[in-house]
Amino acid sequence: MVFRLFLKTPYYFFCIWRCGKKPDITLEEAYACVKKVTKAANRAGRVSIEAHGLENIPEENGFIFFPNHQGMFDVLVFLDSCPAPFSFVIKQEAANVILLKQIIAALDAITIDRSDIKQSLEVINKVAQEVKKGRNFLIFAEGTRSKMGNKLLDFKGGTFKSAMKAKCPIVPCALIDSFKPFDEKSIAPVKVKLIYLKPMYYEEYASMRTNEIAEEVKRRIEAAIAEYSDAD
């Protein structure tokens, strides 16, 4: 990926950096820029994204994606395939990774320190407030990547508190083979699948506890992984 984009990398890096530095650039403009660079990078890396269920993405902004977490490539899968601009919540340890740091600034993403309970609560409230204003977010409910391929860790109930506070649609998403581009030492072409599942609206989960929501979202994602993995 880096080798094939070697000559264009400085230009792409500058474009994303500029989006994070200029206050007059809208989120929609920044998202379009990051999306363009992501698509170019994925093509150069011989990674194809197969997206299903795009019709399940709510037409009205103000929702949260909740996918399984396989690695640092996960966000790139969404950036490549999702037509709706979104921001994301990312652990503080990854916030200084080169390029990812610039994408965080460009998309006004939010970093979370999982060891700081007070800061974590502030992030929950901030995401809820932003979603109420019409912004879309992506949150990894496992809290960390599974490191088990397409098998999931338990989903953390606390990650759904922002959705509960915002009373917004929850969109479960299933990632398949998203760990391969960065974890496998190969230059062979890779296909990653992303399935956008039908959203859970507030009326459906209002009476549920957050741990129950977590279990249901996990169940739906596991079912989708089993279905679309068998499709090959």
For the structure shown, list the relevant keywords.
232 residues; alpha/beta; Glycerol-3-phosphate (1)-acyltransferase; 7-stranded mixed sheet; 7 strands; 15% strand; globular
Description:
The chain has 232 residues and is α/β, with parallel strands linked by helices. The protein has a single domain, classed as Glycerol-3-phosphate (1)-acyltransferase (3-Layer(aba) Sandwich). It is 42% helix and 15% strand. It has 9 helices and 7 strands, in the order ααββαβαβαβαβαβαα. The protein has helices at 9-21, 27-44, 74-81, 100-106, 117-132, 161-166, 180-183, 202-205, 210-230, and strands at residues 47-52, 64-67, 87-91, 110-112, 137-138, 170-176, 190-196. It has a 7-stranded mixed beta sheet with strand order 1-7-6-2-5-3-4, with helices on both faces. β3, α4 and β4 form a beta-alpha-beta unit. The radius of gyration is 17 Å and the shape is globular.
Number of strands: 7
Order of helices and strands: HHEEHEHEHEHEHEHH
Strand content: 5-15%
Q: What is the name of the CATH topology? A: Glycerol-3-phosphate (1)-acyltransferase
Shape: globular
Low-confidence stretches are none
What is the CATH homology-level superfamily? Answer: Glycerol-3-phosphate (1)-acyltransferase
Q: Which bin fits the share of residues in helices?
A: 40-55%
Give the averaged pLDDT, no decimals. Answer: 91
N-end to C-end Cα span: 26 Å
Rounded to the nearest angstrom, the radius of gyration is 17 Å
Please describe the biggest sheet, giving its number of strands, its sense, and whether it closes into a barrel: 7 strands, mixed
Number of H/I helices: 9
